[in-house]
Structure formats: C-alpha cells, structure tokens
C-alpha cells in the first residue's frame, strides 16, 4: 500500500500574520488542509513532521532532517506540503540536497495546487525553479528585516531577543518596536556588582577596597542570589554584566556576530566578540551612570584576570570550601608564621569574623563530619523504607500509565483505518484525531513525570548507599595525606560547602567557632 508523509512549517509571513491577528493556529489549519487532501485522494498518511523551530538552513531544522532521512529510504510515494518553498529556502546546497533526495528516491511532492513528479523532466525543472524563486524571496525579505532592525536600533529601541539581567523586554506603546523596563530586584544586584568592582568597601584608613569578579561571584552565591541563567554566579558572568553598556543606557547590535567559515570542507560557525560593534543611546532608563560603567571598563583593562591555579598548586586543603557566615566571601589562607601554622580568615575589610589556625578548623571539620554521619545513619533507616514504598508505588503507577499510552496509541492507528473505510467523516476524523492527540500528549507527560520521579527515588537511594562509605573514607584517610591538593579533592568529593562562624578569639574549645557543613546529597532527600 502506498504511504505518504506530511511536512508542516510556518513561513515568516505566517508568523507575522499571527503576531498581527493574535490567532496562532497556522499549523493546525495547514494540517487540516493536508489531511483533507489526503482523505480526498485516498492517501495513507504514515507520519507527520511538524517544524516548531525557525531556521534558514536544513542544519537548523531537525524535523526536515528526519523527513529527508525517511524520504531517502524510498518507502514513501510522496510528501504532502502546503507549497514548495516550505521545503527549502536555504542556500543552493540545501536546495540541491532537497531536490536530489526527492529525485533519486522517486518521491512526489504533493501540494493542494499541484503534484510534482521528480521523474518528469518538466516537473523537475518547475520544482527547482520554485526553490530558486523562494530563495530570492527569502533574501529580499531578510534584507527588509535587517533594514528595519537597523532603523529601530538608530531610534534607540531594543532589537535583541532576550533582555539582559536587570531588565524586562516590553512593547513600546502606540508604535512599533520594543524597549527595556527595569526589574527593580535584579537592578539592585547589578548596582551592587558595579559598586563592589569600582568602589568596594572602605579600608581602616578610609580608602576604598574594590574586589574582583571572583570574589563578587562568591559573595552573590553565598547570599543565595541566582545568576542570569538561574545557576551559580561565576567570574565570567559577573564580567559579562560589567562589560554590558546596556546598563549605562546604550543599546548595541552584532556584539557577537555569527561567523561562518569552511574548514576542511565542513561549515563551521563561531561567535567572536566584535570590539567595534555600534553603540546607540537607548530609549530605556539606565541602571547605572555612564561614568560608573566607564570606570568599570577602565578597571577591567588595568586588572589581570589570571585563570584559577591548577590543583597541583593548591596549598590550602580547605580552598573553595569555607565561606564567611557574615559577608559570604570565601576564606583565604595566610602564610605560616614563625610560631604557628597557616591561618584561615575572611578577606573582607572590617568583617567581624575572627580567623583560626587551619589545623584547628580541619580538626573541627573532621569532628563535624563524624557527628553528621552518625545522625545521618539514624535518619536514613526510616527514609530507606519510605523510599522503597514510594518506588513500588511509582513503578506500579508507571506501568499503568504506559498501558494507557499503548492503548491510546493503538486507537490512533485505528483512526486512519476507520477514515479509509468511510466509518468516519473528515470532520469527525479531525475532531477525534485532535482529541486523541491531546490525550496522548497528556499520557506521555504522565509517563515522563513518573519516569523522572522514579529516577529521583533511585538517585536518592544511590546517594545514600554511596555517601556513607565516601564520608567514612574521608574520616579514615584525610590525616594520612600529605598533599593539600589531594586533601582538597577528597573533601570536595563529599562536601558542597562549609559556612564558618566565629566572633570570639582564643582556642577552639573556648571560642564560639561553628562550622555548618553541607554534604553533597540528592535534593530529593528533602522530599522523603
């Protein structure tokens, strides 16, 4: 039996129409049209490829890649598409790939207006000419869009996609284009980053003590402030904020332009920094003064940003683990004195946190780990039983959800049979097809959620089974190691971080030093 495929993709014109009308049903209308065509012609539809991403080349369109792979097998009689330009608007290489794939697999292109047979010379020429004209139209549209973007940029409007941290992208009232609106909560973080980098905190003599991007990142992380990507701050993400002229009231374009180059016969794409990109005064409100931004740029040029030392140069086994409970900065180690060993202390000027000898902190850390391990062993016994019960319930629910999905999938196959047999009219078929697709989507989501839930339970149990021997191993061998780098790696294998608190000097047992340890455990542990 002859089988056909369906390919759906929005054109740029479709997307513009949807934005103007607010009705986002283009693909649904196209799907209905092509399924109606298949019904009228008596075609059997074996698969539908729906492109939900925008891309100018085949490499950027995953569903098109799947379609061409299916066409190459020669198993299908034809592909239903609204019009030829939907298949390829890329360069001549992409157009040739599409044309040759359909030609050598002897696969027809079926549109509501015409059926193109690649074995027919006239159809082949008409098809290739259609691809050529669609490419010319695409290039003309793209040129108009670029001119429009540059005009908006010259007017100070924001033309990029994602707004920078500290802003929200908003539509300008009563005119075309977008601008930026300040996000007050994030803007406070941006101002603090610039303040710490350009001014910093005052020293005892009254002068200012600016801090670097690494220290700023550590301080933000200790305060629990998420980065622009929702993860932890890094020195790079801090410097990205400092470099961005948008905060000073400017807009820019092509800061990291896409650069394509043929290397070894393969097309490579890179995004180098364009130091000469155009800056235009924006219509949005700045978060910081232009002078502050230029001071930050000058400081960045004057300061060195050397990479972090490699593990073999680590002299402090507690490096990157201890954080001050007051200001959140990472504790540093002072050189060993003549009468005592190395000392760890907070580097922030006037911070009330008192330092301690490193060996005293190490001893306290080992005792804290030992106490935590004892309490953890007591805690996990009922958790293991509860986790086993939840795993059994999840496995049962997953089996039931998978059976439901299989049942719905079988019903989906019967829809086409009933359509061919004339049991269903076109309207009934489309209505039930949409309803069934919705139910299948819900069933697939349920199966996915249960898979993730079961994986979380298993991850928590695996973490529990591995964490106890790993921490015990740290307690057993830490003091036998001579290399600080090895000791540091050993601690970081079981600890995420440690909060250090001390406000009274003196020996450890006579001071108020406290360590709050945070072992690396599964976040699912808190839900059991």
Quick overview of this protein structure:
By secondary structure, the chain is of the alpha/beta class.
Describe this structure in words.
The structure is a single chain. By secondary structure, the chain is an alpha/beta fold. The chain has 3 domains: 3-154, 3-Layer(aba) Sandwich (Rossmann fold); 180-303, Hect, E3 ligase catalytic domain fold (Alpha-Beta Complex); 358-527, no CATH class. Helices cover 48% and strands 15% of the residues. The chain has helices spanning 12-21, 26-41, 62-72, 92-104, 121-154, 184-198, 213-222, 235-243, 290-302, 358-421, 426-477, 484-492, and strands at 3-9, 44-51, 78-80, 108-110, 115-116, 167-171, 178-182, 201-202, 208-209, 250-253, 259-263, 266-270, 278-281, 322-324, 332-334, 343-345, 356-357, 495-501, 514-519. The strands form 7 sheets. It has a 5-stranded mixed β-sheet with strand order 2-1-3-4-5, sandwiched between helices. α6 crosses α9 and α7 (213-222) packs across α8 (235-243). The longest helix is centred in the C-terminal third of the chain and has 64 residues, at 358-421. The chain is extended, with a radius of gyration of 32 Å. Residues 306-312 and 523-528 have low confidence and may be disordered.
Characterize the largest beta sheet: strand count, sense, and whether it forms a barrel.
5 strands, mixed
- From the structure provided, what is the oligomeric state, counting identical versus distinct chains? single chain
What is the overall silhouette? extended
What is the CA-based Rg, rounded?
32 Å
- Helix proportion of residues, in percent? 40-55%
């Amino acid at each position: 039996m002859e089988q056909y495929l369906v390919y759906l993709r929005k054109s740029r014109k479709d997307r513009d129409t949807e934005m103007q009308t607010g009705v986002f049903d283009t693909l649904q209308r196209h799907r209905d049209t092509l399924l109606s065509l298949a019904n009228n012609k008596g075609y059997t539809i074996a698969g539908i490829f729906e492109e939900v991403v925008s891309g100018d080349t085949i490499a950027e369109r995953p569903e098109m890649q799947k379609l061409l792979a299916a066409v190459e097998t020669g198993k299908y009689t034809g592909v239903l598409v609204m019009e030829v330009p939907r298949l390829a608007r890329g360069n001549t290489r992409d157009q040739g790939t599409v044309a040759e794939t359909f030609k050598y697999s002897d696969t027809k292109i079926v549109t509501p207006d015409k059926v193109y047979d690649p074995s027919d010379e006239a159809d082949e020429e008409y098809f290739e000419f259609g691809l050529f004209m669609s490419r010319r139209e695409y290039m003309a549209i793209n040129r108009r869009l670029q001119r429009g973007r540059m005009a908006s940029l010259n007017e100070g409007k924001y033309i990029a996609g994602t707004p920078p941290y500290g802003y929200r992208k908003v539509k300008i009232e009563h005119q075309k284009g977008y601008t930026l609106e300040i996000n007050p909560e994030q803007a406070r973080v941006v101002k603090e980053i610039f303040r710490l980098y350009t001014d910093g905190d005052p020293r005892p003599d009254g002068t200012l003590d600016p801090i670097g991007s690494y220290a700023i990142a550590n301080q933000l992380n200790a305060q629990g402030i998420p980065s622009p990507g929702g993860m932890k701050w890094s020195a790079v993400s801090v410097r990205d904020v400092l470099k961005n002229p948008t905060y000073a009231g400017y807009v820019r374009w092509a800061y990291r332009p896409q650069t394509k180059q043929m290397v070894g016969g393969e097309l490579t794409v890179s995004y180098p920094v364009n130091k000469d990109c155009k800056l235009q005064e924006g219509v949005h409100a700045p978060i910081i003064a232009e002078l502050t931004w230029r001071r930050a740029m000058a400081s960045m040029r004057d300061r060195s940003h050397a990479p972090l030392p490699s593990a073999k140069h680590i002299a402090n086994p507690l490096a990157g683990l201890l954080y001050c409970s007051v200001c959140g900065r990472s504790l540093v180690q002072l050189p060993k004195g003549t009468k005592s060993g190395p000392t760890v202390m907070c580097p922030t000027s006037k911070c009330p946190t008192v330092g301690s000898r490193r060996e005293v902190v190490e001893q306290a850390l080992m005792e804290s780990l030992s106490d935590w391990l004892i309490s953890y062993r007591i805690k996990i016994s009922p958790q293991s039983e509860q986790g086993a019960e939840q795993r059994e319930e999840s496995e049962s629910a997953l089996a039931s959800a998978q059976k439901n999905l299989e049942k719905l999938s079988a019903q989906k196959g019967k829809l086409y049979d009933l359509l061919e047999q004339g049991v269903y009219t076109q309207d009934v078929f489309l209505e039930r097809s949409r309803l069934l697709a919705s139910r299948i989507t819900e069933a697939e989501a349920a199966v996915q959620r249960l898979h993730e839930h079961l994986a979380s339970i298993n991850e928590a149990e695996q973490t529990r089974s591995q964490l106890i021997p790993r921490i015990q191993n740290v307690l057993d061998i830490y003091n036998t190691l001579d290399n600080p780098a090895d000791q540091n790696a050993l601690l970081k294998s079981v600890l995420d971080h440690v909060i250090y608190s001390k406000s009274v000097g003196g020996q450890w047992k006579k001071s108020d030093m406290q360590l709050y340890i945070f072992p690396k455990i599964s976040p699912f542990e808190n839900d059991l």
